[in-house]
Task: structure prediction
Amino acid sequence: MHDVIKQEGKNVKRRFYITILISAAIGGCFGLLISSISLNTTLESRNHFLKLIDLFFEQAIPYIFIIFSIITIFYVLFLQHKVKSEFQNLSEEDDVKIQSIENRVNTALMLSNIIYIISFMLIGIVTSDLFYNGNLFKHSFLITFVVCFLFFVFNLIIVIRVQKNLIHLIKKMNPEKKGNVYDINFHKDWLNSCDEAQQLMIYKCAYKSFQTMGRVFTNLMLFFFLVSILYHSAIFLMILTTFFWLLMNITYSLESMKCKP
Amino acid sequence: MKPLGLENNLKKYRSILNVNQQEFGQLAGVSRQTISLIERGDYSPSVTLALKIAKICNCTVEDIFIYKEENENA
Result:
């Protein structure tokens, strides 16, 4: 038994060192590439590239997001209509059908959350553009801002209404569920009304998010580290990433300490 | 991720009782989703819930839940 554990430990260690070596080699190559770009280009030419990206964010991103949001909103409304009519025609014995309705409801909820997050990003970009470089007095920027602001408000109303309707439908399908989307304690009430299996599923999903975000933060940190060779301002992004990474880990650790007997 | 080695006859016993997942969930005091997860083998119920389910089906826990060793499955 001891030998098996020892052998397993050796295998894990070997895999760990190989992964570290490969990651270091890939990181080194990128670092070399970025530093050679940094040495062979002037700050001006790099700033020109940055301006092009800025221009892209300023001009294209708001419209890309608006088009994406409109398509997604229509799809979410279509899903909502479909699940409502499917639920009305549901026979009591149809356990498979109810499962497929629940899957559609979950998809619609996920998409409505995406619209919600993107809407905030959209209004952030447009507002920032408006107050940048005297754009406040330019008609084209003002029009873009007003259109995006109206769209932002419209999105929020639609998302909140859709979420309310979908939660109402879930509560109809599962009468034991409690909570009102307009209530500040909604998540607490919802979790308390879930039974053992549902709570386990929620915790599994939360842990998966924790794992994913851990990977995202590691890669983001490496990316910003490389970008900071070209642009000094990327240090701010590294600090911001560090803050959120620390926040996530400290929250997890404190919560796990609380859970221990 | 399926729990290792636990199979069940819950669907069979539920059809004998002639109730759907929602109704069976109400009898056991859990949600329809939990019954669905157990039937699919995606969730191993707690001892309390397993005993409750056996009581509703009027049989023993071993009649519904069958534990198989890993090498037995192979």
Summary: Chain B touches chain A at residues 20-22, 29-34, 36-38, 43, 45-46, 49 (CB under 8 Å).
